[in-house]
Amino acid sequence: MDLRRRSSSAAAKASDALPLPLHLTNAFFFTLFFSVAYYLLNRWRDKIRASSPLHLLSLSDIAAVFALLASVIYLLGFFGIHFVQSFVTRPADDDVEPSECTSLDKVDGQENVMMADSVTKGASQPSPLHCTEPVKLVACGVDNGIMEPVLKEVVSSVDRVYHDEDDVVIDSVVNGNVPSYSLESRLGDCRRAAAIRREALQRTTGRSLGGLPLEGFDYNAILGQCCEMPVGYVQVPVGVAGPLLLDGAEYTVPMATTEGCLVASTNRGCKAIYASGGATSVVLRDGMSRAPVVRFATANRASELKFFLEDPLNFDTLAVIFNKSSRFGRLQTIKCSIAGRNVYLRFTCSTGDAMGMNMVSKGVQNVLDFLHSDFPDMDVIGISGNYCSDKKPAAVNWIEGRGKSVVCEATIKEHIVKKVLKTSVAALVELNMLKNLAGSAVAGALGGYNAHASNIVSAIFIATGQDPAQNVESSHCITMMEAVNDGRDLHVSVTMPSIEVGTVGGGTQLPSQSACLNLLGLKGASKDSPGSNSRVLATIVAGSVLAGELSLMSAIAAGQLVKSHMKYNRSSRDMSRVSS
């Protein structure tokens, strides 16, 4: 009873202005908030089902929105009430009252006052937000026995709404009412779009994608840039070879591959190069090409365009038009080839640290638009006429080069050949002549005068975010091996005329690939010397190919190839059990 008198004579509180007791008011607004939120989510789901615009609101929708806002404003203000109240009712230091937050339980008709902390005279000042219960689901003043099941039910209901909504969208995709490619723009959530597309695909095909990961990937990073209609991502292990000692610098080379022995073999080649003093490289050319095809009424008229474009007096004007497309794209050459009344125009330009296909294409489009004033009868058949030549083996790339043209060489000491590579200089020279040179000629190879350059190129391309399809021309390589220093040592070189790489744009911006570029010290564009990062990356590719060629050729010469692959490139797992 003393407690009741003391509380009745207490100073006025901020909560006294409320028409209902504080705990009832709080319970009301909590219930209002979750109920209205549940109603609006259901309305949202119904509108999606009916393909109705979300911004068109009925009178009940407007009332619900206002009720939601009112409950949010109150609940935010509720914490302010307790904060203000702590100052209004703060007791003197020598007359500390018990915490306001108490719960009254009736036991055998008697009222028991349950307090979280026993506060006595002389005790330290309680916190302004001190609460009777240690941790509660809702703030002080709310009857938790009432609110806890309400909140659990509301949360459960909201979850059901989201699941029901996803099921509706999945059914729409399966039925063809919603195009799968439009999910990202419709939902505004790339990860959710991938999950819905994935489930729709499984229902449509009746095949499980259980082994294809979905979680742990940033789908926003690939939107409009790297991949359309994603349903997951493929895991490719990344190994490292090195250190590769190249041009006086050491590089640890990342390689993404599923082929056993590849990383180990390249690593052995790096060891032999390092022990012999390292390799050196030279970038011979650096220019990306694009070749549109245009047509005229006669071959004579087509030849006029060829002479015009190859006239040095016109080059400066065309370069100004071309260079407007980019800060880094600078026109280098224009070469033309005629087939009847069709003209193939091969533009080559520098592209900074980007691989540069988009850059050169924009510049070419600018020049074609400009040429229409002098050649209005020119019919542009296609922006690419395959004289570029992109993602196809072509003699023009082998002869003229495309991207970065690199030569890389090293002299391997005789004792290193014997100790590390387990073979002899004479055996390597003979094998290279008969396999890489004569054997490739017999096969009619185009740019394939090597043992396995594409293995290393592909692995580095995947790890660093390059275009894997450009492995075709980037793997053009001729491997040369000669005995030097009176036949004691081995001079080995690789010449690669069309390595197409970049350190900005495309897949290089994805986190994993960016990390691999960072490992090489080549992440992003070079601020001091634009284009230098991509050129260094090209030399690293060539240096790694040099290491791979050395090791594989040595394994073949020593008769170790089959033995090593049987040991390291065969799985002992029962895949029938794994798949089941």
Write a structural description:
- With 580 residues, this protein is α+β, with helices and mostly antiparallel strands.
- Among the domains are: 69 residues, HMGR, N-terminal domain (Orthogonal Bundle); 213 residues, 3-hydroxy-3-methylglutaryl-coenzyme A Reductase, Chain A, domain 2 (Alpha-Beta Complex), CATH 3.90.770; 96 residues, Hydroxymethylglutaryl-CoA reductase, class I/II, NAD/NADP-binding domain (Alpha-Beta Plaits, 2-Layer Sandwich).
- The strands form 3 sheets. Strands 5, 6, 7, 8, 9, 10, 11, 12 and 13 form a 9-stranded mixed beta sheet that branches.
- Helix 2 runs parallel beside helix 4, helix 4 packs across helix 6 and helix 13 crosses helix 17.
How many strand elements?
A: 13
Q: Which spans of ≥5 residues are poorly predicted at pLDDT below 50?
A: 3-11, 91-141
- Count of individual helical segments: 19
Content-based structural category: alpha+beta
Rg for CA atoms:
36 Å
What's the architecture of one domain, going by CATH? Alpha-Beta Complex
Gross morphology: globular
Largest sheet: 9 strands, mixed
Superfamily at the CATH H level of one domain?
3-hydroxy-3-methylglutaryl-coenzyme A Reductase, Chain A, domain 2
CATH class of one domain: Alpha Beta
EC number: 1.1.1.34
InterPro entries: HMG_CoA_Rdtase, HMG_CoA_Rdtase_cat_sf, HMG_CoA_Rdtase_CS, HMG_CoA_Rdtase_eu_arc, HMG_CoA_Rdtase_N, HMG_CoA_Rdtase_NAD(P)-bd_sf, HMG_CoA_Rdtase_sub-bd_dom_sf
Catalytic activity: (R)-mevalonate + 2 NADP(+) + CoA = (3S)-3-hydroxy-3-methylglutaryl-CoA + 2 NADPH + 2 H(+)
Family: Belongs to the HMG-CoA reductase family.
